[in-house]
Structures are given as C-alpha cells and as structure tokens.
Amino acid sequence: SSDLSQIQCVNWFRLAHPNKLIYAIPNGGQRSAITAMIFKKEGVVSGICDLHIPIPLNGYASLYIEMKSLKGKLSPNQMEMFDKLRCYGNKVVVCRSLDEFMHEVNTYFTT
Fold first, then answer.
1. pLDDT tens sequence across 3-12
2. What is the pTM of this model?
3. CA 68 to chain centre
4. Which residues, in sequence order, are CB contacts of 71 under 8 Å at separation 6+?
C-alpha cells in the first residue's frame, strides 16, 4: 500500500464523515519470520484489504478498500481474498489516489 496516500485518505474520511467508522487492517509491511508467524497465529490473514468501512449500505455488507501505488499490482492472494469478500456480500475496491478513494467512498454512501 502507499502509506502517505492511505494517511491522506483516512484523514479526509474522518473530516468528511466524522460519525462513520473506518479502520486500517495492518497486514502489510516488512517483518521478521517470527513476527509474521505470531501475527498469523493471532489471526492476520494474507491478502486482506488495507481499510474497512463496516457500514452496510445498498445491499453490501461493508466496503473494503485496498490502497495501491500507481504501478502496484494485486497479488494472487489478494485476488483470491477479494473474491471471498465479495462472495460474503462486501464491496471491494482498489484505490490508487486520494481522488479515487474519495470517489469510491462518496459513491458507496450516496448510491
């Protein structure tokens, strides 16, 4: 994920929608093999999205958002997880900028 972009997106969301919940799922990043093993045992799941808005709307259970850089590619794990999340009734989107994030969130809340 693009950390700076994600910070900007969360900051915008909290200003634009102060009474709505968004939270990060700290799944990525470099870590030691031991830390990774502990995280997995604690319930960290490979391929899960970066951000979650747990508000059911428009027939969806919730909105999951994966933040990617402009050239960032989805991993096979991510594609598989996104399919699972969609099968469970969630909307899953990939955002590469603050503008895309704002558009996806606003669309989710207004349609």
1. 779 999 999 9
2. 0.87
3. 10
4. none
Strand order in the sheet with 23-24: 23-24, 51-53, 63-67, 91-95
Name the helix (H) or strand (E) containing 64.
strand 63-67
Higher pLDDT, 15 or 35: 15
Residue pair 62/55 in contact (Cβ under 8 Å)? The answer is: yes
Question: 81, 48 in Cβ contact below 8 A?
Answer: yes
Structure tokens, 43: 């319930």
Helix (H) or strand (E) holding 55: none
Q: How many residues does the chain have?
A: 111
Cβ atoms of residues 22 and 109 within 8 Å: no
**DSSP state for residue 61 in the 8-state scheme:** S
d(CA 2, CA 37): 24
